Amino acid sequence: MALADLFKFFTSDATEKYHEPAFDPAKARKPLLKGIERSKIQFENDSLKSPNRWFSIKNGVVAFHPKLDGRPLVINGLEENHMPSERFVEFLELMRKEVEAGEFDEVIAAHGKGNVDVHIGKTRKASAGGRSMVSNVRSSVSSKLRKGKSLDEIEAELKADAKFSAADIDTVLAERRAANS
Length: 181
Description:
- The protein is mainly alpha-helical.
- It has two domains: 21-110, no CATH class; 133-180.
- The chain is 51% helix and 9% strand.
- It is built from eight helices and five strands, in the order αααβββββααααα.
- The protein has helices at residues 2-7, 12-19, 25-44, 88-100, 105-110, 133-146, 151-161, 166-180, and strands spanning 55-58, 61-64, 67-68, 71-72, 81-84.
């Protein structure tokens, strides 16, 4: 009985953890930070034909699809996220700050090992078969109206939060104002 009690201390989890390489967040962030900076420079210099770019542009929309170790980095539940091209540099600067602050450490550590991802703002469905961004703004506005906020307060909050484009916010608020008049 005493020997069996001793064996309870041994676990397969401890064995796996022992054999894993130590995760150094500062070192692990470097490839992501380098790629963000490279993407910013390529975008600002109109280097749209550069090999291994993390983005493509079509119809004024940027498709952002970063990779680490040759595999897609899942952000917001998706391997490719879309945004208006005029907001891409702003996004990259914010992403750089979040990476430096450690917000992506869990994602980087688990990259290629399973289903861990980072969500920037609210989780959004892909546009194919999912809700449009305008629908998401409508939902957010409705929720805030139910909480007793005015349209002006909602507009200020949504634009400060930067989850949605100003154009989508303006569209939804114009609909609401027209319906109220």
